[in-house]
Each structure stands twice: as C-alpha cells, then as structure tokens.
Amino acid sequence: MLERFEEFTYLMSKINKDIQKIKLEELKKYGLKGAQMEFIHYIGKNGSLSFKEICEYLHSDKAFVSRNLKLLEKAGFIKRELKQNNSIYSLTNSGLDVYKLNKKKAEEICHLIYIDEDKIDTFYKNLHDISRKLDSIGEKNYD
C-alpha cells in the first residue's frame, strides 16, 4: 500500500511539473508566471471575482493574492472595480485574449491525452476522494 501511495504522489508531482512546463512556454509570450495564469483562468471562468473569492479559489494568503492582482492590473490583464466596499476583479480585453488562448491550448492538450470517459470519471471520483481524505487529515493535524 505504501509503495502505491509513493508512486501516486510521484506521478501527481510529475504530472504537475509537466503541466507547469507546458504552461510556462505559453506564459513567456505574455511575461506571466504560472500563478498569475491561475488568476486569469479563475477570473475568466467566472466572469468576475471578489478578492475573497480569489483567495479561496487559489487556497492562498491575502498578501500573495494582493501582490499578484496588482501585477496583473498594472500589466493590463485585469481591472478592479469597487462594489459595496468589495474589490471585484474582471479581465480586460488583453486578459480575455490570454484566457481564451490558454483555454484553447488546454483543449488541445486534453485531446492529445484523451482517456476513455468511463475511466476518467472513475479517476476523478477517486482523486476527489483522496483530496477530501487528505484535507480531513490536514485539518486534524492543525487542531
């Protein structure tokens, strides 16, 4: 069992690194970093997000989120509006272009690594189960 868990964590780490490597090649064209693309992705996917929602989506602290939002705003990829004392972030036209290009690239990659729908459904169900269990263990360790 331990060997399988070690193999699982190794493969998850390798997959993540491979994805990051592919993303970085695309991001270099725009002067962006991986984390900043996640901001663009989540904001683009949702249309607009509050500061709090972005922190929750990315599981990141306020300082990290604030720093990256400022960089993205300065670079012209996002805009901030104040609504009822909340900062709401949305994509500019440039940000939307990057979001669409990244989405297209992701679709191309998904097509190349296609896995049978039944297998992928089972895989994701198991992945969600593992994530929930690890979250639970992590929460117990902090209490």
At a glance:
With 143 residues, the chain is mainly alpha-helical. The chain has helices at residues 2-27, 34-46, 51-58, 62-74, 93-112, 117-142; strands at residues 48-50, 78-83, 86-91. A 3-stranded antiparallel sheet has the order 1-3-2.
Structure overview:
This protein is mainly alpha-helical and 143 residues long. It has 2 domains: 2-112, Winged helix-like DNA-binding domain superfamily/Winged helix DNA-binding domain (Arc Repressor Mutant, subunit A), CATH 1.10.10.10; 113-143. 74% of the residues lie in helices and 10% in strands. It contains 6 helices and 3 strands; from the N terminus they run H-H-E-H-H-E-E-H-H. It has helices at residues 2-27, 34-46, 51-58, 62-74, 93-112, 117-142; strands at 48-50, 78-83, 86-91. The protein has a 3-stranded antiparallel beta sheet with strand order 1-3-2. A hairpin with a 2-residue loop joins strand 2 and strand 3. Helix 2 (34-46) crosses helix 5 (93-112). The chain is globular and about 50 Å long. The model has no long low-confidence stretch (mean pLDDT 87).
Structural class: mainly alpha
Task: Work out the number of β strands.
Answer: 3
When the domains are counted, the total is 2
Q: In the CATH hierarchy, what is the class of the largest domain?
A: Mainly Alpha
- Secondary-structure element series: HHEHHEEHH
Quick check: average pLDDT?
A: 87
Q: Tell me the number of helical segments per DSSP (H or I, 4 or more residues long).
A: 6
Shape: globular
CATH architecture of the largest domain: Orthogonal Bundle
Can you list the strand order of the major beta sheet?
A: 1-3-2
What is the CATH homologous superfamily assignment of the largest domain? Winged helix-like DNA-binding domain superfamily/Winged helix DNA-binding domain
- Approximate helicity band: over 70%
Q: How does the major sheet shape up?
A: 3 strands, antiparallel
